[in-house]
UniProtKB/TrEMBL annotation:
Homology family: Belongs to the amidase family. GatA subfamily.
Coiled-coil region: none
Quaternary structure (record): Heterotrimer of A, B and C subunits.
Domain Amidase: 27-463
Source organism: Lactiplantibacillus modestisalitolerans
Annotated active site: K77, S152, S176
Organism lineage string: Bacteria, Bacillati, Bacillota, Bacilli, Lactobacillales
Gene (name only): gatA
EC number, as in UniProt: 6.3.5.7
Protein name per the record: Glutamyl-tRNA(Gln) amidotransferase subunit A
Enzyme class: ligase
Catalytic activity as recorded in UniProt: L-glutamyl-tRNA(Gln) + L-glutamine + ATP + H2O = L-glutaminyl-tRNA(Gln) + L-glutamate + ADP + phosphate + H(+)
Known function: Allows the formation of correctly charged Gln-tRNA(Gln) through the transamidation of misacylated Glu-tRNA(Gln) in organisms which lack glutaminyl-tRNA synthetase. The reaction takes place in the presence of glutamine and ATP through an activated gamma-phospho-Glu-tRNA(Gln).
One Pfam family recorded for the sequence: Amidase
Keywords on record: ATP-binding, Ligase, Nucleotide-binding, Protein biosynthesis
Amino acid sequence: MTYFDQDLTSLHADLVAKKLTAVDLAKTTFVNMKQVDPELGAFLALNEDAALKRAAEIDAKGIDPDNVLAGIPVAVKDNIVTKGLTTTAASKMLEHFVPVYDATVVEKLYASDAVIVGKNNMDEFAMGGSTENSALKLTHNPWDVSRVPGGSSGGSAVAVASGQVPVAFGSDTGGSIRQPAAFNGVVGMKPTYGRVSRWGLIAFASSLDQIGPLTRTVKDNAAALNVIAGYDQHDGTASKRAVPDFTAGLDGDIKGMKIGLPKEYMDEGIDPKVRAVIKDAVKKFEELGATVEEVSLPHSRYGVSAYYIIASSEASSNLQRFDGIRYGFRAEDVKNLEDVYVRSRSEGFGDEVKRRIMLGTFSLSAGYYDAYFHKAGQVRTLIIDDFKRVFDKYDMIMGPVTPTPAFKIGDEISDPITMYMNDVLTIPVNLAGLPGMSVPAGFADGLPVGLQLIGKRFDESTLYKAGYAFEQATDFHNQTPKVGGAN
Ligand SMILES: NC(=O)C[C@H](N)C(=O)O
């Protein structure tokens, strides 16, 4: 059995009606994972004993009908710390690291009686767009196992797409939730910066990182964001703003909604097959009563360059803590303190992480700071202003998530610039701190294509409403991949 014929809402209804127990669900989940995952590699660690114990406790106290995640198996990306359960960030540096506390998101999941069944593979320290940068294993796309699942939250997207769990939680710094969601045909939300606490998320680029849910349907996604959103005193950038119920008003109509379609998101750089899918989506929105007009985000083309300066600079600082002394990997047979630092970091980090640390250290160094880091900050402001101008007139922006569908494993890994360009359409959203969501919008040669919906700050609700209307009018979310799913 997989969950493919059941979304979160119907699983929850079965649990409340006692047609199913949390223990049944957890047991089935592990049986299924052990059958499906060896071919896909979505999980780095299973949490079987603790999950079954937890499920039994939840059954004993009863399923709370108001709590949609109660008794539901969920998966968490391996850069979100889980007390007592290894959290590796897919790095040799943290391969055996067992955290002593839970991330705020994990605490909230426990408080809502969710059952954490395992930790998902990812690009090392969330740096990458294919999950090939994991130091620990390769993850395959369930629609075509010769292809990448995207990244860096590749394991989380595959876990959902292949029906192993109905909900997984990833993180997105430049596209890491939306791009793998698009490549795997699932819904992925990168919330507004500040909407979800980053406490306990292993920091990559702190001014960009956000945790968000990946699910099969828009409604499930809204329900999952309800659980993890909100203020947290441990994260100075977590917003105190009230969190609305994201599932409320989902089925309101979208007549009169004004949507901008950036011309830069539909130019020659985008695969014609992807463009064709997005054009069909535009028609669908028009049929639903929205108006879609061409707009311009002229500085978005500089987003990738600015991102690789800003994100790498922040990473070079954040990753200083991995010094071979405090925690994590330490090289053997070291001669002196200098040797501990140099060899532990040289042997513990993979190539992409080292590339970014060097890039970041360079752009922050005296003499280069103005030319690089400062300039990148100015570009960021221009990108923020582009979005502001469009949002003066429009309720939402839409376009593709990625320029192409999932590529072959091995095709881009030796060409960092090509790999970085995967996020050309997602990065500006992180730089501006806006919410962005990927919704299944069709197929190109049998591979899923994602539609990106971008909203005003803290206006995830509009994205969910629009995404839900689109989903109800289409059937893409009901298609299942070759591996896992209904097969
Ligand atoms: N972390 C992300 O959001 C993905 C982006 N591809 C990066 O490598 O930085």
